[in-house]
Write a structure and sequence with these properties.
four-stranded antiparallel β-sheet; seven-stranded mixed β-sheet; 122 residues; 11 strands; mainly beta
Length: 122
């Protein structure tokens, strides 16, 4: 059974940092592209950062360029999201997802985690 599980998340002050992780199982993690998708309150889900299967290529939403970094450890079947210089508008439910990116944020998502809440507030 394919599973992607995101423990972590939490509340952080503006300007702070947070690292999310996602544990994958039930599939050959190193063969698949992965993304973090965010859903802000009252809005639809949007791609935040994407990484290729080998970890050598990433694609970032303009809103997080220079602040968020996606990475992966294929030996540990784990995906990470390092979030820095957090802003209140980064508040969202963040999902770990599996999917192949075609172009831009046209991604064929096929598995989603349950999501982890990140709240940026003073």
């Amino acid at each position: 059974e394919v599973q992607v599980v995101e423990p972590g998340g939490g509340r952080v002050q503006p300007g702070g940092s947070l690292r999310l992780s996602c544990a994958a199982s039930g599939f050959t993690f190193s063969n698949y592209e992965m993304s973090w998708v965010g859903q802000a309150p009252g809005k639809g889900a949007e791609g935040v950062v994407h990484i290729n299967s080998g970890g050598g290529s990433t694609f970032d939403a303009d809103s997080v360029k220079g602040r968020f970094t996606i990475s992966r450890d294929n030996a540990k079947n784990t995906l990470y999201l390092q979030m820095s210089s957090l802003k209140p508008e980064d508040t969202a439910l963040y999902y770990c997802t599996r999917g192949r990116r075609r172009t831009g944020w046209d991604v064929e998502y096929d598995y989603w985690g349950q999501g982890t809440q990140v709240t940026v507030s003073s």
